[in-house]
Amino acid sequence: MRAIVLEDDAVYQESRPDPVPAPGEVMVRVLQAGVCETDLQLIKGYMGFRGVLGHEFVGVAESGPLQGRRVVGEINCACQSCATCKAGLQSHCPNRSVLGILNHDGAFADRIAVPQVNLHAVPDSISTDVAVFTEPVAAAYQIPAQIPISRSDRIVVLGDGRLGNLCAQVLAGLSDHVTVVGKHPEKLALLQARGIATALVRDAIGERLADIVVECTGSDSGLPAALRLVRPRGTIVLKTTVAGTQTLPWAPFVIDEVTLVGSRCGPFDRALDGLARGHVDVLPLISDRFDLSHGLAALQRAQVRPVLKVLVDVARQ
Question: Which domains does the chain have, with CATH numbers?
Answer without folding.
Answer: 3-133+282-313 (3.90.180.10), 139-262 (3.40.50.720)
